[in-house]
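pipeline: protein-struct stage 2 | run 1193 | DJ-1/PfpI family protein
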Amino acid sequence: MDATFVLYPNMTALDFVGPFEVLASVPVISARFVAATLDPVKSDNGLVVTPTDTFASLKSTDIVVVPGSGHWRELLKDSGGVVEWLQEVHPTTKWTTSVCTGSTLLAEAGLVSKATTHWAAREDLEVRGVEVSTDRVVFDGKVVSGAGVSAGIDMALRLVEAEFGEMVAQAVQVGIEYDPQPPRSYDSIPPEIATGLKAAFDSRQG
């Protein structure tokens, strides 16, 4: 089973590295990295990843993982071929997934009706006709979305459970020693902190 991780400039590294660690822990899953070209791709914080495939060469896969970016509105204006490739490959997948603002790319491609995303991007999902959930992971048929950044680990664990069963998912979770605590979310923090955070994220969008 192939799991293909979409790469593009200014993606958020943990959005795909987290799910990669989870999915790559399952022996029958092989990881691939797809981008517009085979040139190395730099994340928003400087991590450089080399693709294994291009949008032109890879036409089918079992699982797609679309990471988000802190500059998602800029990406929505010009996805560099990501949206078109998703539209092309989605009919071939068993699971099409996103992490963080990656769900806005799925929405732009017209592939999702209900999803979660980073709290700063909820409006961008809503204006694209998507029912926005504040849940950490959302299943919408074969489309699975995880909320912001670290939620990609939760999304991938839920995906492993759906595909291979609870025991495999538990083994993977313990294997990577994932036990987040204490729980905290945008909707549970003091309003003054939430307001400041929202302003900071909005300022990135220009």
